Amino acid sequence: MNLLPLLYRELWHRRVNAALAVVAIAGTVALLVAIRMLTGAAERETRRVMRDIGFNLRILPRDVDPDRFLTEGRSDKTMPADAVNRLAAAAGAFVSFNHLTPSLERLVQMGGRDAILTGLGSSVVGPGEKKQPMGFSIPEGKAFLGSTLALRLGVKAGSSIEVLGRSLEVERVLVESGSDDDVRLFTALVDAQKMLGLPGRISEIKAIDCLCLTADQDALGLLRKALSQALPEAQVLQLRGMADARARQRQAAERYSAFAVPLVLLIGAGWVGILAVLNVRERRSEIGLWRALGRGSFWIAGLVLGRAALLGGAGAALGYFLGTRLALSQGPQLYPMTAGGFVADPALLGWALLLAPGFAALASFLPAMLAVAHDPAETLRAD
Amino acid sequence: MLTCHTLVKTFAARSGKIVGLDGVSFELGRGEFLVIHGPSGSGKSTLLLTLGGMLRPSSGSLTLLGRDPYALSPSDRTRFRAESIGFVFQLFHLVPYLDVRQNILAGLPKKDPAEAERADALISELGLESRATEFPGTLSAGERQRVALARALVKRPALILADEPTGNLDPENAARVFQRLAAYRQAGGTVIVVTHGLDAAPHASRVLRLESGRIVPQPPAAHLL
Ligand SMILES: Nc1ncnc2c1ncn2[C@@H]1O[C@H](COP(=O)(O)OP(=O)(O)OP(=O)(O)O)[C@@H](O)[C@H]1O
Ligand SMILES: [Mg+2]
After folding, report:
1. Which pLDDT score is estimated for A54?
2. Where are the domains of chain B?
3. Interface check B81 vs A, CB under 8 A
4. Which atom of ligand 1 is nearest to B9's Cα?
5. Is A246 helix (H, G, I), strand (E, B) or coil?
6. Is the CB of A381 less than 8 angstroms away from the CB of B45?
7. Could you tell me where the DSSP H helices lie in A14-62?
């Protein structure tokens, strides 16, 4: 008789032991699938939050006084506009950041009161990134107006405004944000440079953390290093805020899963291994019989390991569906902003079906050796 | 066919060394039916497993079908056993999750239609037709022993080793088993049966008595008992 039908029949005969082993493997796979899906979601959520709240890192001319920058909210010094290209070309710049946007910003008078003029240059994107810059790019001669400022000036999209002797067409009035963006006038970088009489100058470079580093890597430290080589005339300031908290949360999740994954694997392996030992003990006289019938050690080991592999396959399929269900039912509450990003990942099923049988066989390795080493004379003497 | 010379088997036990076989020597020709009897603990099972290549003796020599099974590599010994020796055990040792027919076929190393046919012939010969698809758990002791016997017979081994094959059977079933083994001998097989008593003696070509691991002279008139 071939091994495979024998394995099926034995599993069916000892359904309870088999079911317990499938539950152990399914539980292990389910937890791993859920952990994988949730850490993926945590990363997505962090990216989304970052994008929504804007740039979280600002690279300033070295001679900017940090105290003054923080109280006034902008750099009063400038550096050459090509700084952004130099930084982008430096090794290591895009290791931790994937968007670098040059800008020139000054307080101006509009409608008799203060407004912020911000000229945005086009973003430089990291080599692997194809995505659109996360801010918006503004064509020359056009302006984006904060809502409070538009109200003050009484203008709408399509209107024309005069700023510092230059005429701009209002392309868009931004929705109220409750931040200083509401009193901001966005223009193309070159327009701002011309209006302010600062050709070829920028006041800062804004950057977004690419979230591609692991918990123990220091994104800011890496950028500072790249900066000190490529742009000695600049300094970098990180804005701590919601994004930062999110990043920390993600890193905590990463650390947590780094701890949880081996633990889950260990408990699963222990459970499967113990069940396999019990199974082998129960079958000692059967194993002795197979010996007497002329089956060799490899065949006996195959009896135990093949069984484990079949259980692993069944547990993998079941665990994938359970884990996916778990993630799909709990995930959207945990990560509401990217709830739509929760979808079943069939690749995980593939991995589970590939790895779980091997894992179960590995966990049954000792029991298999136990079976091979079993002395048939012990059970066959049987008086 | 079989020659063993001063076979000794000792076991290490908590109380010290236990002697299972204490210098067993005999010869057996092809077509013989040997009955070895003796009291419990005299070493009958130990001797049978040693002769069957399942238990390496501590010393002494064994030649079976011209070969020393313990001089073979483990895999060669396994193949030798599969091809040449059929075991029948007192406790049957059927595989609980295989039905009667599958249990009989489990004795065959390779799938062979001729052997499957022989299995079916044995099933009807041993009166197991109505049980062929039952599992061992539902069989009576006599039926189980017939299945175990069929499993040993189906591969037509040169030598059948039976360890108290009738220990759990009523006299009627016991007689059936011995008759079948005797028929196998008639067909050219060689049989060794170990038992407590002498029920198998009428079929035997030779009877040996084992006591404390040694072959001892027959008590007078043992054949008449
Ligand atoms: N694996 C073992 N470890 C220790 N002692 C053993 C072992 N196998 C057999 N013995 C001892 O060897 C002696 C012979 O045992 P064996 O099973 O061969 O007796 P037996 O003649 O078959 O007895 P029974 O008629 O009760 O089946 C006994 O004293 C037994 O305790
Ligand atoms: Mg015995």
Report:
1. 57
2. 2-216
3. yes
4. 12
5. helix
6. yes
7. 15-53
